[in-house]
């Protein structure tokens, strides 16, 4: 058996790690320093909310999606804004694309367009959706990843980057190990026709996978797309449906499970239909 796939995976993972850790630290610093300003913009710009949600959603990580989930639960953000943010965000996907030198701009553009259309479309139908009684007196909302709360110090930010980056790197390594094993030992190219035979259902399948909470979902989808395993439409559908821990945050804010399921279903339907349209029309935004 050829074991070169192990070395290939290790080298690729090290290259990714050298970029991911600094990026996480930089974005963490920006989030902490300008977090309050971003919060105020989301609160004040009601008519621009879906657009702002889509724009800020492009920031890598689950930060904006999480904070928007809290605003929605409070009754501050509209349903359209929340959905637009979830669609626009790619969670940890960029931390996979950037180190590999992969052109992710067409994918972000496709998601951004969908986010704006879906956001304003939903708001035009629902006007302004509230969830029960808004939650008051929550205090300052730390504009950061809810999974690894930390202090606003350089040392803590660096520790957070190491912890969070380590998890991302392990996920990437596992996926790369599997894909490189297939490529080196089972002839990866021979499997491409197999995936192509499921061209139509790829966006639906990947969008369904995207609903799984956690950064592992976006990292896995991004890696599969970068390796050419899934199509552009499937990648857009999957990363549009992937919302990190945002839906779990809604549950933590006291939002009913029934409503969270409805939002997840709405996100899945919108992402799947859009992905299928991209696939059928062969639009790639390149």
Could you outline the blueprint of secondary structure elements for this entry?
Blueprint: H1 4-44, H2 49-57, H3 63-74, H4 79-88, H5 94-100, H6 105-126, H7 154-185, H8 192-196, H9 202-210, H10 215-226, H11 232-241, H12 246-252, H13 257-281
Helix pairs in contact: 1-2, 1-3, 1-5, 1-7, 2-4, 2-6, 3-4, 3-12, 4-6, 5-10, 6-11, 7-10, 9-11, 9-13, 10-11, 11-13
What does this structure look like?
The protein has helices at 4-44, 49-57, 63-74, 79-88, 94-100, 105-126, 154-185, 192-196, 202-210, 215-226, 232-241, 246-252, 257-281. With 286 residues, the protein is mainly alpha-helical. The protein has one domain (4-281). It is globular and about 60 Å long.
Key traits:
mainly alpha
Short description, anyone?
By secondary structure, this protein is mainly alpha-helical. Helix content is 70%, strand content 0%.
User: C-alpha Rg, in Å?
Assistant: 19 Å
Class from helix and strand fractions: mainly alpha
Apparent shape: globular
- Annotation, overall tally of beta strands: 0
Biggest sheet features: none
Q: Give the total of domains.
A: 1
The SSE order reads HHHHHHHHHHHHH
Outline the low-pLDDT stretches.
128-148
**What is the average per-residue confidence, as pLDDT, rounded to a whole number?**
78
Helical amount among residues, as a percent range?
A: over 70%
- Number of helical stretches of at least 4 residues: 13
Task: Give the amount of beta strand, in percent.
Answer: under 5%
How far apart are the termini? 39 Å
């Amino acid at each position: 058996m050829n074991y070169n796939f192990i070395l290939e995976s290790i080298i690729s993972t090290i290259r990714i790690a050298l970029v991911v850790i600094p990026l996480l630290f930089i974005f963490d610093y920006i989030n902490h320093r300008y977090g309050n300003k971003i919060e105020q913009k989301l609160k004040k710009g009601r008519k621009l909310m879906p657009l702002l949600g889509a724009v800020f959603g492009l920031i890598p990580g689950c930060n904006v999606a999480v904070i928007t989930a809290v605003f929605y639960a409070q009754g501050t953000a509209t349903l359209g804004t929340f959905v637009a943010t979830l669609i626009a965000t790619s969670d940890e996907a960029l931390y996979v694309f950037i180190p590999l030198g992969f052109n992710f701009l067409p994918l972000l553009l496709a998601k951004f367009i969908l986010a704006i259309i879906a956001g304003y479309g939903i708001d035009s139908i629902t006007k302004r959706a509230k969830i029960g009684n808004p939650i008051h007196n929550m205090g300052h909302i730390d504009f950061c990843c809810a999974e690894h709360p930390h202090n606003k110090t350089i040392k803590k930010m660096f520790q957070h980057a190491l912890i969070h980056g380590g998890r991302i790197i392990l996920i990437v390594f596992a996926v790369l190990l599997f894909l490189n094993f297939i490529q080196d030992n089972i002839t990866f190219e021979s499997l491409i026709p197999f995936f192509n035979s499921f061209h139509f259902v790829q966006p639906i399948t990947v969008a369904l996978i995207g609903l799984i909470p956690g950064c592992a979902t976006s990292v896995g989808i991004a890696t599969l797309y970068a390796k050419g395993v899934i199509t552009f439409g499937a990648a857009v559908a999957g990363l549009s449906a992937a919302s990190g821990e945002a839906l779990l945050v809604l549950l933590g804010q006291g939002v009913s499970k029934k409503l969270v399921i409805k939002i997840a279903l709405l996100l899945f339907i919108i992402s799947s239909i859009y992905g299928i349209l991209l696939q059928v029309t062969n639009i790639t935004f390149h």
